[in-house]
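Field reference: sequence -> structure
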Amino acid sequence: MRWLYRVPRVRGAVLRAMSCAFRARYRRSFAPGVRIYGWPFLRLKKGSELHVGMRASLISVSEFSEWALSHACHIRTTSPSSKIVIGDDVGMSGVTIVCAAHVEIGDRVMLGANVCITDTDSHAVDLVPRRFAHNQVKYAPVYIEDDVFIGAGTIVLKGVTIGAGSVIGAGSVVASDIPAGVVAAGNPARLVRSLRAEAGR
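Structure field:
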């Protein structure tokens, strides 16, 4: 099927058809102008909410990403009270978002290839029968503010806020809050330098 993407006219027709079909199916969740490349994987619990802002871009096939994608964009809610809010002009490529409570992404955020964002541990952490201790799973909201750039392969964990305009280096694990206007990287992600100080030079 992928060879079709190499034929421009066929590729255009296939993409337009897929985009129209996807937006028709999820019209209540996606604002006007959202661009769909490939077919994102959505699993939304009944009663949960997903709001994707205007002109957002979801890339789910490697042909339209500079980096190879491990999978399509994957957006999942695990509770009827889950809420995911994605702002205007957000770009994402093969991104995974798993939400048990609340995940909020601001405007003009760039999410690199294969980024993972979750507000839940998914399993119990303490020494208990983890596979079955569903009542001991911890979760906390995630907030990614406007104009943030998160590099490829980064994992953003529960309870994290990333301040406006910050950059997270590729392959990082963000386990605690990152202030606005900085570069952070590593496992766990730590402050590398201030973008504001650099801009003032």
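Note: Residues 184 and 191 are 4 Å apart (CA to CA).
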